[in-house]
Specification:
2 domains, 7 helices, globular
Length: 236
C-alpha cells in the first residue's frame, strides 16, 4: 500500500533466544526450489542470511499455539545492488517458504539501514504440512544501531505474533476485527490502489474532454471507496 506503517519498530529479543547461525543460501534454494529468476536475485542481492533468534516455548517461556508453534527471526544482509528498497516479495517468499514457522525478517542494507518485514504466515487448511503467506508488511528504514523496544507482553506465541504484525500493518484495527479480517481489508485496499493507479494513468493519456470528465469521475469514486475501506467499511 502507498500508506506505509508509521512505525520504525525493532524488537530487542532476550539473549537466551539468540541463535546467531548463518544459513547457506544453497540450503534455502534446495528447500524452496525457486525458479531461475528468484535464484539469480537471491544470489545477486543477498550477501548472507543469519538465523538470529528463535522465539519458542523453551526460549521465551510462552506457550505455543497451533498456528504459531515458534517464531523465527532472520537477518538478511543485502549487497549494494539489493540495497534500495529491500528485497522483491518473491525473494522474501522464497526464504520464507524454506522455513516451517512464521518468520520475521530484519533486512539490513549496505548503508546499515534496517527495517522489519513480515508476512502473515499461517498453516494451510488444505495441507497440514504447508503454510500460506498473505502479503508482506514493513516498518520504515532506520539506523541499524538505533535503540530497540521490548517484545510486546503476550499470553502465548500466537498473541505475540499478532501484536508484532499489527505494528507493521498500515491500517488500524477496527472494533471486533481479528487479524484475518484486518489482513483481508488491507488486501482490498491494495487492490483498490491498483485500480486507482490504472485509472490515473488512463486519465493522463486521455485527450478527449468528455471522456476525460468520465474517467476523472470514476477516479474520484475509487478514491472515496479506498478511504471507506481504510476506515473499516466497504464490501468484503
Amino acid at each position: 500500500m502507498s500508506e506505509q506503517a508509521k512505525s520504525d519498530v525493532l524488537f530487542d529479543c532476550p539473549e537466551h533466544t539468540r541463535v546467531g547461525r548463518q544459513v547457506p543460501k544453497r540450503r534455502i534454494i534446495d528447500a524452496a526450489k525457486p525458479g531461475k529468476r528468484v535464484r539469480e536475485l537471491l544470489t545477486r542481492q543477498v550477501e548472507k542470511i543469519v538465523w538470529q533468534n528463535k522465539l519458542a516455548p523453551e526460549t521465551l517461556n510462552l506457550p505455543a499455539t497451533r498456528s504459531v508453534p515458534e517464531i523465527q527471526i532472520f537477518r538478511v544482509f543485502l549487497k549494494q545492488e539489493g540495497s534500495g528498497d529491500g528485497l522483491p516479495e518473491d525473494v522474501l517468499r522464497c526464504i520464507d517458504g524454506a522455513i516451517g514457522f512464521p518468520v520475521l525478517f530484519e533486512l539490513i542494507r549496505a548503508d546499515e539501514q534496517i527495517r522489519l518485514v513480515a508476512g502473515y504466515k499461517r498453516p494451510s487448511e488444505a495441507k497440514l504440512d504447508k503454510w500460506v503467506i498473505d502479503g508482506y508488511f514493513a516498518s520504515n528504514w532506520g539506523p541499524a544501531g538505533k535503540p530497540r523496544e521490548a517484545l510486546p507482553v503476550a499470553l502465548d506465541l500466537g498473541s505475540l505474533y499478532k501484536q508484532i504484525l499489527q505494528r507493521l500493518i498500515p491500517l488500524r484495527t477496527q472494533n471486533n476485527e481479528n487479524l484475518e479480517k484486518l489482513i483481508n481489508r488491507v488486501s482490498r485496499a491494495r487492490a483498490k490502489e491498483r485500480e486507482i493507479e490504472k485509472t490515473q494513468s488512463m486519465l493522463e493519456r486521455e485527450k478527449q474532454f468528455n471522456r476525460k470528465v468520465d474517467v476523472n469521475s470514476r477516479l474520484r469514486k475509487l478514491k472515496e471507496e479506498l478511504e471507506q475501506i481504510k476506515r473499516g467499511g466497504g464490501n468484503e
